[in-house]
């Protein structure tokens, strides 16, 4: 079973939990309020992508709260598992540019439109 990293936006805690699969016709908001969804500090935790999880592990709790407030952007550095959190405006710009380039590559690379 695959697992995900969840982040508490209030205290910055990280938790590994099994991936939550959305039930039929359930919205994301409904999944987050369901009992299956990990909670911390009385609130639904935020689910991170694998890359965001790698970046999150490089921060302490206090830094993660700030990062969550800035949109959880990440920058990919050369090499494996080299995702770092984007914390200042310059890094966030870089992260957005990388993401735009990534989406662009994906569009050009696929012959059939799947979205
Ligand atoms: Zn918490």
Q: How would you describe this structure to a colleague?
A:
- The structure is a single chain.
- The chain has a 3-stranded antiparallel beta sheet. A two-stranded antiparallel sheet has the order 3-4. The chain has a two-stranded antiparallel ribbon with strand order 6-7.
- It has 115 residues and is an alpha+beta fold.
- It has 4 helices and 7 strands; from the N terminus they run ββαβββααββα.
- Mean pLDDT is 87; it is low at 110-115.
- The protein starts with a strand and ends in a 6-residue tail after the last helix.
- The protein has helices at residues 28-33, 50-56, 61-69, 89-109, and strands at residues 3-7, 14-18, 39-40, 43-44, 46-48, 74-76, 83-85.
- Zinc ion binds at residues 8, 10-11, 13, 40-41.
Poorly predicted segments:
110-115
Count helical runs: 4
Bound molecules: zinc ion
Rounded to an integer in angstroms, the radius of gyration calculated over CA atoms is 16 Å
Give the strand order of the largest sheet, numbering strands 1, 2, ... along the chain.
2-1-5
Q: Tell me what portion of residues adopts beta-strand conformation.
A: 15-25%
Mean pLDDT: 87
The structure class reads alpha+beta
**Gross morphology:** globular
Please report the distance between the alpha carbons of the first and last residues.
Answer: 26 Å
Number of strands: 7
Task: Give a quick set of tags describing it.
alpha+beta, three-stranded antiparallel sheet, two-stranded antiparallel ribbon, 37% helix, disordered C terminus, binds zinc ion
Layout: helices, strands, pairs:
Elements: E1 3-7, E2 14-18, H1 28-33, E3 39-40, E4 43-44, E5 46-48, H2 50-56, H3 61-69, E6 74-76, E7 83-85, H4 89-109
Antiparallel strand pairs: 1-2, 1-5, 3-4, 6-7
The chain binds zinc ion.
């Amino acid at each position: 079973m695959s697992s995900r990293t969840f982040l508490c936006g209030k205290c910055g805690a990280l938790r590994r939990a099994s991936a939550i699969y959305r039930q039929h016709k359930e919205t994301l908001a409904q999944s987050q309020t369901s009992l299956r969804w990990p909670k911390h500090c009385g609130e639904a935790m935020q689910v991170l992508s694998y890359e965001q999880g790698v970046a999150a592990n490089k921060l302490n709790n206090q830094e993660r709260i700030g990062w969550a407030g800035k949109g959880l952007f990440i920058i990919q550095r050369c090499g494996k598992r080299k995702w770092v959190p984007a914390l200042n405006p310059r890094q966030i710009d870089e992260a957005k540019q990388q993401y735009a380039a990534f989406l662009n590559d994906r569009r050009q690379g696929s012959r059939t439109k799947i979205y």
